[in-house]
Amino acid sequence: MSTARPTALITGITGQDGLYLAEMLLAKGYEVHGVIRGQNNPRRALVETLVPDVRLHNGDLTDLSSLMRALRVSQPDEVYNLGAVSFVAYSWENAFITSDVTAIGVLNMLEAVRLQAGDDPSAVRFYQASSSEMFGKAQQVPQNEQTLLWPRSPYGVSKVYGHHMTINYRESYGMHASSGILFNHESPRRGEEFVTRKVSKAVAAIKLGQQRELVMGNLDARRDWGFAGDYVEAMWLMLQQPEGGDYVISTGETHSIEELLDVAFNHVGIPDWSRYVRQDPGFMRPAEVDLLIGDSTKAHQVLGWKPKVGFEELVTMMVDADLAALKAGW
Hints:
It is a single chain. The chain has eleven helices and 13 strands. It is of the alpha/beta class. The strands form four sheets. The chain has a seven-stranded parallel beta sheet with strand order 3-2-1-4-5-6-11, sandwiched between helices. A two-stranded parallel ribbon has the order 7-10.
């Protein structure tokens, strides 16, 4: 890697992970570039407000030439591929778009990075955002880097493709390419279509008298939830290693949707949430995943990484952020 000021390029910079990662890299002295889709992207202003020092480039994961152009202009030492169609429920409705972006988009990024690196395939270090959704019908509990992948959604299938393609490019071309198999990670910046943010915003609105009920799907589903701000540190640590590799990033704890509701409603002084919550079969997944809980032993031992924010602190952080936003009229 260059001894001068390091440079990073981030796809998916408009998402929660991209924003936290950009903030962290800027704080470390990096020159940070981001790929953003469309001149009139509605989240462009958010990026420019939160991380104004990031240089943005127009690009699309489905358009190899635009990615090569962004790489040529930015000349990065590190590339973080966080871009994806990342909402699982949407992937059933739009399996083709999900596959184009979340699967083939990884191939496009890998090929663009390989071509940019030239004679030294490891000159540009590459991070791929893999997902615990790849485990799907979990074949062992907890899941680690050797667990058989059995995805249960078009999103999960697409992530498996990108994950294996990253391994293939590492093994075939000698690229410094790593995959972070991230379990569910949340924050106040999470999109409102995701269950944690759906709950935190609804709880805040109910507390303020702005909403009467919260409609949910499966309350028994369990997930391994961590804080996105912690998880982006693991991404960076992977690219500081002598060689690329694959790492499960998780808290090692699992909590149900009911527990999520307990913590969120209790935080605003509503101990019994049953009269505010209604279940609707329309919010159930066609194929629910089994118990997802990660074993991050490798990340602990090799990267020296461990999560700092616990489940209750994460949920209350999100509820407080939504309370503040709603009070401010956002």
